[in-house]
Amino acid sequence: FGTALAIIGVIVLAQPLLLIVGGAIFAVLLDGGARLLGRILPIGRGWRLAIVIILGFGFIGWVAWFAGTTIAAQFETLRLVVAAQFQRLMEFVAGLGLIPEGRPADLGSELLGSMGKVTAAVGTAIGAVGSVILMLVIGIFLAVEPRLYDRGIAWMLPLRYRQRFYRIAEQVGFTLRRLLFGRLVGMVFEGVFTWFMLAYVSQLFGLDPVPMAALLGLITALLAFLPNIGAITSGVIMVAVGFSAGPEQGVWAIIVYFLVQNVDGYLVIPYIARRTVDLAPAMVLAMQLLMGALFGILGVLFADPLLATLKVVLIELSGAPPEEKKELARAQSPG
User: Fold this and answer.
1) Which of these, 258, 296, 302, lies nearest to 284 by C-alpha position?
2) What digits encode the pLDDT tens for the residues 82-127?
3) Which residues are CB-contacts of 236 (< 8 A; sequence separation ≥ 6)?
4) CB 3.0-4.6 Å disulfide test: which of 49, 96, 134, 311 passes with 34?
5) 28 to 21, 133, 314: CA distances (angstroms)
6) Rg of the Cα trace of the chain?
7) How far apart are CA 219 and CA 239, in angstroms?
8) Is 280 exposed, middle or buried (0-12, 13-18, 19+ CB in 10 A)?
9) Which of 121, 143, 142 lies closest to 132, judged by CA?
């Protein structure tokens, strides 16, 4: 009965719970930045955390300013290009007899509309802004005094479980810091590499630059936070824009996409995975589909960190084999 009530509570309170989860993930990012800065600056944690917050919001402001002043006008062009290319693709598929002749536009609308539902909390612009602000505020409060909230949760547990809770919390924090750091590294790499290859390297082969290279780099970087789904989405957009400029640019966009994904997939992500809990791609994709169906876009965003957290907790609670615990211990060692 208690389990049934817990499931019903999670479903009913899905939106606020996801906002709290988002705030906790943001707090892990801030805490990781403060810890990293502590290796360089021998100052108090509060000052380091303040520097990380200022730098983080400063970077977000710069990106917003850059996007607003440099490439904002390209968003409408990008939307029209992608829509036109998708319509051409549907007409080509209809010409092969794979779909009814009169249904390309309707099928396109159905496919685009079935990408996933958005939760009510982020269903409108006001809801999205309010949700982001709430997550940021929660994250800052959690990052300022993490021990306070750890103790608050521990006090609700029996005495015999408190030490295990602290141990699990420490392992979860370590894992999420490494996981999110890997995501940030991947985002920066994919965004910069995509922009540079589309805008400049193409000219070395006598090709015209792919249109909207800076915007495509920014979109690729943002979508890189979502494993699997983000890469596929950014690749489709990149290739559509490339073919809108010509077949040569379209082929070059395909080459750039595979280069970016292979370098990131075989160099960046495996190195980060060795330093934290390795997540099977099929499990990540399944978790994203499940969370997206249940909770919308926020569920997709947080599926990866939640899966990593769940794996760490289950390893500890299930009495994992000694070699797996040793592997986690080696990952946590400074060397």
Assistant:
1) 302
2) 777 777 777 776 777 666 655 544 544 444 443 333 333 334 445 6
3) none
4) 49
5) 11, 17, 20
6) 22
7) 13
8) exposed
9) 121
